[in-house]
Amino acid sequence: MHGTSGYREAAAELIAQYEEVTFEQLHAQVLHLLPQRPVRVLELGAGTGRDAAWLAARGHLVTAVEPVVELRVHEGPGITWLVDELPDLARVVGEYELVTAVAVWMHLDEEQRRTAMRRVAGLLAPGGRLLLTLRHGPVPAGRRMFPVSAEESALLGGGSGLAEVHRSGRADGHGRAGVRWEQLVLERPVS
């Protein structure tokens, strides 16, 4: 089973679900850690592009990476869509001041997470930050998900030269039983 299994088939339902929660609601605990000046942003698993649109509206240049093109909703200035996927990100080039992976990490097995962390750390500019949002809870039918933790993710980041600057938890924004989330922000030190 592939990490995107079930997403094409459920695209219409998922689009409605993603769009009912705003960027500010989803990221309230880390808004203060996001760049205030326009920067280059890499959004991994961009889904509908809701987050990309919010960031682009604030002047950021966003590369929105999403392997399931059926989910794509938001287009516009400041957003460049790219079909690619973790862990390798074979088509992604450049350095980014912010990389986000929201509700993505749990689709990668342990070895893929190690590979992905090294790859993402290599894409961060000095002083750049990685925002991970980790899902915990029951796996929906037809999907591929693995247990993830902030502890493991922080250790993987540390092994790739990143330092933890934030960790928090929250309830599920959709009220799903047994589902909860953690946010982790890792930073590449300025040499």
- Please give the CATH class: Alpha Beta
Radius of gyration: 15 Å
CATH superfamily: Vaccinia Virus protein VP39
> How are the strands of the largest sheet arranged?
3-2-1-4-5-7-6
Number of strands: 7
Taking the alpha carbons of the first and last residues, their distance comes to 41 Å
What is the helix fraction of residues, given as a range?
10-25%
CATH architecture: 3-Layer(aba) Sandwich
Which topology does CATH recognise? Rossmann fold
What's the helix count?
5
Written as H for each helix and E for each strand, in order along the chain, the element string is HHEHEEEHEHEE
Number of domains: 1
Q: Which range does the strand content fall in?
A: 25-35%
Instruction: Tell me, briefly, the overall form.
Output: globular
Structural class assignment: alpha/beta
Give a description of the structure.
This protein is of the alpha/beta class and 191 residues long. The protein has a single domain (11-187), classed as Rossmann fold (3-Layer(aba) Sandwich). Helices cover 24% and strands 27% of the residues. The chain contains five helices and seven strands; from the N terminus they run H-H-E-H-E-E-E-H-E-H-E-E. It has helices at 11-19, 23-26, 50-57, 110-123, 150-159, and strands at 40-44, 61-65, 79-82, 96-102, 124-136, 163-171, 180-187. Strands 3-2-1-4-5-7-6 form a seven-stranded mixed sheet. Strand 1 (40-44), helix 3 (50-57) and strand 2 form a beta-alpha-beta unit. Helix 4 packs across helix 5. It starts with 10 loop residues before the first helix and ends with a strand.
